[in-house]
Amino acid sequence: MNNSFFFDHVHVDSYSSTPKYLQLAYAILSAIKQGKFQQNNLLPSLNELTNHLEISRETADRGYKYLRYLGILKAVPGKGHFISTTEINNPLRICLLVNKISDGKNLFYQRFIEDLGTDIPIDFYVYNNDFYLFKRLLNKRQDYTHYVILPHFIDNEEEAEALIDTLPKEKLVILDKRLKRVKGNHTTIYEDFEGDIYKALEQALSALSKYDTLQLIFHKKSYLPVDIKRGFNSFCQQYAFERGVLDSIEKIELKKGEVYICVNDDDLVSLLDKIKDTSFIIGRDIGIISYNDTPLKKYMVGGITTISTNYRQMGELTAKTIKDNMAQDIALDFCLQLRSSL
Q1: Is the confidence at residue 90, as pLDDT, over 70?
Q2: What is the CATH architecture of 3-83?
Q3: What is the value of pTM for the model shown?
Q4: Which SS3 state, helix, strand or coil, does residue 295 take?
Q5: Among the residues of 147-192, which ranges form H helices?
Q6: Residue 171 DSSP SS3
Q7: If you ran DSSP here, which 8-state letter would residue 168 be given?
Q8: CATH code given to domain 193-309
Q9: Is the distance from CB of 114 to CB of 73 less than 8 angstroms?
Q10: Domain spans of the chain?
Q11: What is the pLDDT of residues 263-287, one digit of tens each?
Q12: Which member of 242, 254, 266, 342 lies 3.0 to 4.6 Å from 207 by CB, making a disulfide possible if both were Cys?
């Protein structure tokens, strides 16, 4: 096998979060599975890999060592590395598409790779809630065994769901919310956005009782599901709170007796900036609830009350459903951290 043919099928993506040695190893495995590389083919030397793929010699050697560990390659002193077998199992290779980076997503990812195994290649892409970037990334489809997608889009939601629906359902794991336009037997590990905010506010009812109005800050162009607004409105109706849904925190006049629920951290920062210019005391005159707990929120202004998804559970369940190779529909737990901001 000549080197030109080899490098037609073996590439390394500098932008992927998958370690380069695993990208090298799994590109070779993919070519073997496709019948491109045959038993006893001689592979390029470490120096040739280094020069052509622009990787270090150590990375190239580690990739070959991994394949020797799997029994795919054999090393012959003085000659090089040969393919020892073309009879291989179907190794896992994951495409992970996340709408944005956050503390919660980091918790998910850490638990996911802990439970799945650090030697499993994961191509990790962030598409910033942008459908067109998501589409370009998904069109780079390679020989993935699973597509793990957190599908939050500011625009083109229907187009995004239609695109996701084209993926093989046995390979599809959808996280964080259900997609009604995606059919077939696939895995969904989701938040109950409507039920979670209702139950969280119900758990905080005693602390909320000293206020008369709840204000949900929810942008018109938010990527978050409108289910949050439905759950919020249902709670306020059930327990006779005055209520409002605000598109922005910037232009509102803060009032005593109101609780402000911030679904993103930018609004939380803006709200705290507005409060510091008043005489209101947080937790007495004005209440604050923020979505998604972070270590910092435990200490901000004496502690911010938070409603959070269990992102570590999301990572655990995602790894389990992939290893078990079984389609499931699972609702995630949520957690209310009641602190002095109420």
Answers
A1: no
A2: Orthogonal Bundle (1.10)
A3: 0.77
A4: coil
A5: 157-164
A6: helix
A7: -
A8: 3.40.50.2300
A9: no
A10: 3-83, 94-191+311-331, 193-309
A11: 999 999 999 999 998 999 999 999 9
A12: 342
Contacts of 102 (CB under 8 A, 6+ apart): 292
Res. 2 pLDDT band, cuts 50 70 90: confident
DSSP state of 296: G
Average pLDDT of 26-51? 91
List beta partners, residue 288: 260
CB–CB of 216/243 below 8 Å? yes
Asked if residues 293 and 89 have their Cβ atoms less than 8 Å apart, the reply is: no
- CATH 3.40.50.720 for domain 94-191+311-331: no
Which class for 215: exposed (0-12), middle (13-18), buried (19 or more C-beta within 10 A)? buried
Across the chain, mean pLDDT equals 92
**CA geometry: angle 92, 189, 316, nearest 5 deg:** 55
Please state, in angstroms and rounded to a whole number, the distance separating the CA atoms of residues 290 and 302.
14
Secondary structure letter of residue 170 according to DSSP? G
Sign of CA pseudo-dihedral 237, 152, 97, 289: negative
Alpha helices in the chain (DSSP H): 3-9, 20-33, 46-53, 57-69, 103-116, 131-138, 157-164, 193-203, 205-208, 227-238, 265-276, 311-324
Could you identify the residue written with the tokens 């500011």? Answer: 154
Phi, psi of 213 (to 5 degrees): -135, 135
Q: Which H/E stretch holds residue 35?
A: none
Q: Is 176 left (phi over 0), alpha (psi -120 to 50) or beta?
A: left
Amino acid 101 reads I
CA distances from 53 to 24, 36, 177, 196, 240 (A): 9, 19, 39, 48, 65
Which two structure tokens, joined as six digits, stand for 80?
């090089």
**Hey, CA dihedral for 46, 50, 53, 58, is it positive or negative?**
positive
Residue 73 bridge partners (DSSP):
83
